[in-house]
Amino acid sequence: MTLRILHTADWQLGKPFHNVPGDAGALLREARFEAVRRIADLAARYEVAAVLVAGDVFDSNLAADRTVLQALAAMRAFQGPWILLPGNHDAALAESVWTRFERLGCPPGCRIARMPEPVTLADGRLVVLPAPLTERHTLDDLTAWMDEARTPAGAVRVGLAHGSVAGRLPDAADAPNPIAADRAVTARLDYLALGDWHGALEIAPRTWYAGTPEPDRFKDNGAGHVLLVEIEGPGAVPRVTRLPVASYVWQDLVVDLTATDAGDDPAGRIDRALTTTSRPERRIVRLTLRGAVDLAGRLAVEAALERWRGELCHLELEDELVAEPSERDLLQLGDAPVIGRAARELSSLVRAGDAEERTAAALALRFLYLEAGRLERRR
Amino acid sequence: MRLRRIEIANFRKLAGPVVLDELGPGLVIVSGDNEEGKSTVLAALKAAFFEHHTVGGAIREAMTPHGGGTPEIAVEFECGSRRYRLRKAFRRGGVQLECAEQRWSDDAAERMLQDILRFERRQGRGVPRPENAGLQALFWVDQATTFQGFEPVAGGRDRLASAIAAEVGVIAGGERAKTLIMLVRERVETFYTPSQQRETGALRAAGEQLRVLEAEREQLEAKRRDYEGRVDRLARLREERRRFIERDDTGRVRARLDEVRQRLAASQELERNAGLAAESLKAAAAELARHEARQRLRRDLVDEAGRLEARAREIGRRAEAAERDLDLVRQVLVAARGAEASAADALARAEQAWAGARDRLAAARLRGETQRLHEAVARVRAAQEAAGRARALVEASPATGEALARLHALQARRDEARARVEAGATRLELRPEGERRAMLNGEPVDPGSALRLTGRAELVLEGFGRLIVVPGGEDLAEREQACRAAEQALAQALARLGAATMAEAEIAAERRREAEAELRYQESAVRSLLQAFGARGADELVARLAGRRTELEALAERVPKDTALPSEAELEAEVRSREAARTEAAERLRRARTSLAEAEARATEALAAKARLDAEHRAAARQAEEVLERLALEREQIGDEQLAARVEEASLRRRAAEESHAALERQLRGIDPEGLRERLSILERELAALESEGRRFDRDIRDLEVALREAGADAWGERLAELEGEIAAAVAERRRLELEGRAWRLLLEKLQAADQEARDALVAPIGERLRPLLHRIFPGAEPVLDPERLALTHLRRDGVVEAFDHLSIGAREQLAVLVRLAFARLLKEREGEASCLILDDALVYADETRFEAMKAILQRAAADLQIVVLTCRPRDYFGLEARYLRLEDCRSDRVGG
User: Fold this and answer.
1) Of A170, A196, B216, B613, which is most buried by a Cβ count within 10 Å?
2) What's the domain range around A305?
3) Is B884 on the interface with A (CB under 8 A)?
4) Cα gap B541→B563, rounded to integer Å
5) pTM here?
6) In a domain, B585, yes or no
């Protein structure tokens, strides 16, 4: 009979989302619990033998009791077994979020893998070998013990760990908590369920990172899934299926507004870049604006951005756009030579000042354009 | 604009027609005395050009001369390239304007004038304002106003401004730029204080918010560090406890403790045995010591008995020698007693003789003093009696000095009263014929004597009848009454003194004074006597006499009263002689007694020595007997040989005990029970410490667990994480606001700089034309012009900026003329023509040098500008190339010829 497990990791419940202020941040925090609810529902639907959470269930060992209680509530739809592994964010310290998790009412179907010792499940058909972190960082490979771990014959051996597989992850050369890339082989594992890398990633047919179920950064690495792992028996190659559970989409866009022909409308180009099929209120967008526009164009861009800010869940702007007054702008400023002279002075600063001066001068120019235009309209 | 000809009639004081003709293009000097009407010429010009010909009210009245009539002015002038002729009589239909091509009248003429001279017609009856005269308000300067601050206004300023704009090609920012600058400044002030030194508003609030958040983060970070420190400590403690339990130090110490306790129990048994051996040794040693002591005592007694017997014999010999010494001393004592008795007799005799001599001397002295006291008492008594008599006289006489003085005063008052009565009396002298008689108040009167009547009198004259006389004077009766009262008072006073007359009273007073003198004399005599004897009163003197007499009586037993005595000096010499003899006898007695005392002392000493030696001899004999008795008793109890045998036995027993004890001690030293006890004590303490350590681990771990559980219960950890976000947002917000503030400030700076540049450009053309003129009067000075008002506001000299209003009147006047010349030059150059300049009594405050310089400037300016100077001092302007006109010469009977 096929053994089915759900592999997930890096829930990071209680993550504050510093870069997303206000209501949007609150929505993103709530979305992580929603993802757990969906995982519980999936576990119940697929009648899995266990849900293995490969570390970083909580964002911090200092997570509030309320966060712990919300997590327990979100997991309720699946009676278990849940195997929760302490990761680097929630290491099993002398006093940790796990000691509070137990005090606040760890349900019977929920097991915290605080010790590197085999956990037998599914009437002995499945043995989980966990490698919990008891400190945030270690230079030892905590999965080494799995090589020597004895399990009953006929049981599926599944390793559960949190760390970096050496040489297989970008930017992870000196990363702590190392895991040998061939651990599944040396420890005769049928499957090695990993956590720490936030995207779903296959390291080897028997070694996978599940990734975070709810994306939390502008990195297009396949986050937002849970892995359904199906194993026919000891020695069989597992079948791994990505099941989407995410609520929000994170997008990183770059738009160059430099006019290529006279009819180019900067605001229109922004609209085109931001318009997609997904629901805007479920999108977190980082928009980098480049190129140069005149002051009128700049005003139009700002109006468009203001509109998008209202529609999107969150819009983060990287403003590298240069605004310079055109002849048309100067005409708009009216016939007062004082204003024209000031505008020219500011323009020259935008072109030739130091970085700080350029930024201030560009903004001053926009202010001048706005205020002078307002006065002109009043006449 | 240039004036050519002016005719004035019926205008204020210029009633008769005045014609100023052939006014040249350059300088025109119009002179006239004070009150002659120079200023009226200027007023007439202004009226002709700028007042409507139908003007009424106060303005019209102000033009009309005293004698009445219609004010009329005719002016020929050039403007542009045209020559105009204006005739204005201030009545309806009284205005005509014409040039070569055209002619206008009434309102059309007035409108044409407005167009030519570009001014606004004054509306209604308002006071004329500068703009109602266009540029001429600037160039036609009334008397005594030259030095006032001025600025071109309204139409005038606009024309100057447009002339400048035509030259510099820019125009001022205008209202829009000003409004924009104001708006931007308002925006800047939402970020920075007006001085732009400090942040304000949202920018400051953002900074404060950031500081609050950072402070909260710091607090929570500290809490986190503490929390993590405790978590680490808990882990360490748990590890330590685990290792502690693993090592089982407590069990190890307990085992060692049991072993030591067993060894200690064995050593204690040995100790008890050693103790018993020590006791046995002590008992054997004590017995030996007792026997040896008895042996020593016996030897001591034999020795003591021999010594005591020898001593008794020696003392016996010394007692015999003392007996012989005592006899000799007794003989010396008898001789000394005899000598002392004879010396005592001699002293008694000498003292008796000395006492007799002293008695006699005392008796002689007492007799003398008694006699003197007796005499003094008698004299005091006599004086006291005389004083008593005198006092009685004084006390009996009332005629005191004061009483006599009062008497004299009363007498004088009476005499005065009498004199006043006499002065008012009527004197009658009767000269009867024949023997005729007269009766006064029923009493016959002597006709030969005169009568003095002081009261009403009835005189019966024989042969005549009654004659009633009433003396004159209104107060005669009062005077008489006063006189009687005075007499009565005098009589009463005399009666009180017991005198009938004043003479008697005088005698009585004299007697009293004599008695008072006697009394004082006798009292003085008594005081002198008492003072001589040092007595306080006569009674004391009498008592002292009685005392001396008693002493004399007492002395009579030793010195009979009738004994004749030598003089006191002789007696005193005898006393001294007897006293010396007595002293000598006393000294001899003292020496005899000293010798006796010494002899007695020696006798006593010898006797005592003898007695002491006897006693010692007896005691020594007794002690020897006692010692021999004790020795006999000892030997009776135990014989000498038996005692020696017991000593030998005891000695053997002690040696055996010593050996047994030493053997046990050696065994104990091998075991070291003290060391075992110390070891036991150390192990017990070690065990207690280890048990305590175990309990401490449990307690510390429990405490830390509780503390961590409590510390982790609230949401501060997440709050800390949230804070990072809030701080990042606050930093971003602050950066955004800083950038905005900086941008607004930059915009303001640029706008202000551009505005200033435009302003500077605006005043440049005026400055350019003013500077050469200015430097001739104020070398090196720089004008500061307000571009808004086109007015000279300051003068900069040697780096010092002086306000126009703060300059002297003379300097202001000169500057005002120069600025007008510069304006005129600008207009001439830009528009081809300037208004003529009319100065009414200007430059009156200039000193000679400046005046000359100003004249030269005016002369040069007149080359292309008509300048009309109205002055009362035409000679000041002599030498100029000008048309000179005397107002007096301009009076004419014709108007508008």
Assistant:
1) A196
2) 249-378
3) no
4) 27
5) 0.54
6) no
